[in-house]
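From the methods appendix. Each design record in this collection lists the tokenized structure first, followed by the designed amino acid sequence. Records were kept in a plain field format so they could be parsed without special tools. The example shown here is representative of the layout used throughout.

RECORD:
FOLD TOKENS (276 positions):
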């Protein structure tokens, strides 16, 4: 250890940290992936939380366009370990929570002199729609591990990360509403998706019945949606816009998920209607 370093940490310790739980390398990997796929992408910048008015720093923001449609992604990355994984408790999705909203540009001027409107979408008959009623949806999440006594305990180091995605998407919603507020604009409709990406092998699912009975043993998985029901007030339009779900996706699964968006497939037709 260097004589100038009195912190108790040496280069070997730092290297061990960087090789195991370095979120910065994780973020750059996902950012480079999104950018390489052709998505407009940003990594690690400051912004003002539109709700708290506090300065925050996001991990990744990405946008994809397909004709007059646009998808905006607020992506946060969390490096977890297999001995302290994320457990998501799921139930069948309630019909009232089945759906999402997007914004679109209307031809006529509405509240606040804006062309921006909010449109609910439930798509009950749409195959592979990610927010169908009765499908599995997360309602609780926490990390689990064994303590020094061998007892199972729970923690929540991921809370700041996924709430950061919600704060980041809030500013993106404001920017999107502003983009559509004055006609003409090439973009006519925008969907917003907050995403939490976690390390491979660290996402576990526990399925429960609607009454709360555990259905079988917990199992590892690659992706799950988590219900939010988060509302954002669009001041100019004088209307609430809702983000219904957070997408939790493993490090390897995010590749195909983003590739689907980049190629014009994936969740495009599930989140936004096909223009006539």
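DESIGN:
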């Amino acid at each position: 250890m260097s004589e100038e370093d009195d912190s108790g940490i040496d280069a070997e310790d730092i290297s061990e940290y960087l090789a195991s739980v370095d979120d910065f390398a994780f973020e750059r990997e996902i950012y480079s992936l999104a950018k390489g796929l052709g998505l407009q992408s940003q990594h690690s910048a400051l912004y003002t939380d539109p709700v708290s008015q506090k300065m925050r720093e996001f991990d990744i923001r990405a946008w994809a366009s397909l004709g007059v449609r646009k998808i905006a992604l607020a992506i946060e990355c969390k490096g977890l370990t297999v001995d302290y994984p994320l457990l998501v408790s799921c139930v069948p999705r309630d019909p009232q929570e089945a759906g999402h909203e997007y914004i679109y540009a209307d031809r006529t001027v509405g509240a606040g002199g804006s062309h921006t409107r909010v449109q609910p979408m439930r798509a009950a008959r749409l195959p592979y729609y990610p927010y169908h009623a009765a499908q599995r949806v997360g309602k609780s999440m926490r990390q689990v591990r064994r303590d020094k006594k061998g007892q199972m305990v729970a923690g929540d180091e991921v809370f700041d990360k996924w709430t950061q995605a919600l704060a980041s998407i809030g500013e993106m919603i404001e920017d999107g509403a502003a983009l559509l507020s004055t006609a003409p604009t090439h973009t006519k409709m925008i969907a917003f998706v907050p995403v939490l990406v976690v390390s491979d092998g660290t996402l576990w699912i526990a399925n429960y019945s609607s009454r709360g009975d555990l259905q079988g043993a917990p199992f590892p998985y690659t992706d799950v949606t988590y219900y939010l029901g988060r509302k954002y007030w669009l001041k100019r339009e004088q209307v609430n816009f809702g983000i219904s779900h957070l997408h939790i996706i493993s490090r390897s699964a995010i590749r195909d998920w983003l590739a689907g968006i980049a190629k014009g497939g994936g969740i495009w037709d599930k989140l936004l209607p096909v223009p006539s």
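APPENDIX NOTE: DSSP finds five helices and 15 strands in the chain.
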